[in-house]
Amino acid sequence: MIQFNGRGAALAAAALLFATSAASAQQEPAPAPSASAAAPVSWAAFSGWKRYHGNCATCHGPDGLGGTFAPNLVNSLKTLDHDQFLNTVVNGKKDSNLTMPAFGLDPNVMCYIEDIYTYLKARSDGTMDRGRPAVTPTKPKDVAEAEASCMGV
Ligand code: HEC
């Protein structure tokens, strides 16, 4: 009986911990829902795919897999958290003889940075395949409005 109570308490504590981490996880953009290339992805993941390839892939390679000039971000996002990612993109980084430019003043990057994070995180978590998502999602109206106001149009 005592053992059972102890186990129950431990489970309750674990459930509480899980609830807490699940709540804080909700702060992050939702990852793409599926591992299949043919499955639809969220607007954020699709937008991130597009913006990544417009602004980052020249150095970081197609699909986030790294290039001659910059590291593999599919690997980096296994250890970098959201804040470290943002900090690097906003302020740049130079830990080697290669330079990561600062994008903090570039609206073409900063207005879409959460989308780019969502895309790279989904690639890193293995929930999104290489290549263009097979299905193009519809841009939600509130996203279109937020984008226009961020871009100042
Ligand atoms: C001109 C080339 C270039 C472009 C364009 C570029 N990066 Fe980088 N990036 C680098 C280099 C080089 C590094 C490694 C810097 C170092 O060694 O300190 C890096 C590092 C990073 C890191 C840190 C990786 C780690 O493991 O610490 C992140 C995150 C990152 N870049 C994200 C981006 C994103 C997102 C974009 C597009 C908005 C982008 N980069 C565009 C060159 C680039």
UniProtKB/TrEMBL annotation:
It comes from the Bacteria. This is Cytochrome c domain-containing protein. The keyword Heme applies. InterPro entries: Cyt_c-like_dom, Cyt_c-like_dom_sf. Keywords: Heme, Iron, Metal-binding, Signal. SUPFAM superfamilies: Cytochrome c (SSF46626). Residues 37-124 form the Cytochrome c domain. Residues 1-25 form the signal peptide.
